[in-house]
Each structure stands twice: as C-alpha cells, then as structure tokens.
Amino acid sequence: MSRRSLALLAASICTAGLAxxxxxxxxxxxxxxxxxxxxxxxxxxxxxLLAAAAVELxxxxxxxxxxxxxxxxxxxxxxxxxxxxxxxxTEDAGYIKGPGPYRIHLQQSxxxxxxxxxxxxxxxxxxxxxxxxxxxxxxxxxxPEDAFDxxxxxxxxxxxxxxxxxxxxxIPLDPTSGRPQTTTxxxx
Length: 188
Known about the structure:
Keywords: Membrane, Transmembrane, Transmembrane helix. By secondary structure, the protein is of the alpha+beta class. Helix content is about 40%, strand content about 30%.
C-alpha cells in the first residue's frame, strides 16, 4: 500500500471516529456544536476517503469490494442525513436577554409529520470562543395545557418557565458554572 493510501485510510478512520463521537455525545461548547456536530456529513466524508484509499490497492477484487461498501455507506449517510434535516430541522425563534453574559435561546420545530409545534429552550453563556449552551427544556403543544407560554428571569441565578395553563417551573443556575441545575420537558 502506498503512503497516500495509508494517509487516506488513517484520515477515513479518524473522520469516522469523529462522526461517531459527534452522533453519540452532546457538547456544551457552541463552537464545537455549530461547526463539528454534523455526524452524517462526517460519515459521508469518511466513506469518500475510504474509497479514495482503496483506489491504489493491488487487488482488483478488494478495490471493488471496498468501493462498493464505501458507496453504500455514502448513500446511507446522505439519505439518513437528509431525513434528519427534513424532519428534524429547528428554526430560531429568538433570544431573551438575561443578566450579565446570559441569554435564553428559543428554537421551534415541527414534531415529526404531525401538526404539533415543539419549542426548545436553552441557556447560553457568552464568553467568546468558550461560549456554552445548555438545555433548559422542551415543550410539545400536543397537549395544549403543556405548551410553552413564557420564560422570565426571577433573579441573577434563577429563571422561571411558564406553560399555557399557568404552571411555573423555577430553574436555578449553578452560581459558579452557570449550568442549569434542573430542566423540564413535556411530551418531548
């Protein structure tokens, strides 16, 4: 095997490993989650790199086998990524300014193929490249009483989420890290 093929094989293995880590692990750092948390695109790249590494193999049957497997993997990664993008995409609904470096990030999406709207809330602590974001809650309006209504700051380290029937859920924040100590969700 040539050095080029070995380098492409190593790059393919590293890219596939990164895709697996991004699929199974959530990251608090916004920089990582925005730019690297694309496991299906990374999986597709790993398949392309694997096929490129197989081009210089001396055995034709192994080239064809690896090329076919890489092609199937590429098609599977692209198809599953398209399905996730089509039915799992969220859109920004805005930010609510908080004390100091904190902001509450609101996102909305459709719940699968149904007419239900899902609202996702997360807490973002701005700190340049080290900006972090943590989940606060998820609300599906499948049951109208459990739909998200509002969120407000009740102190420098506490906030309160309200659902449409008037129930409130206080969320205390860790005073040192800023991470929410509890979360809440309905029908998510």
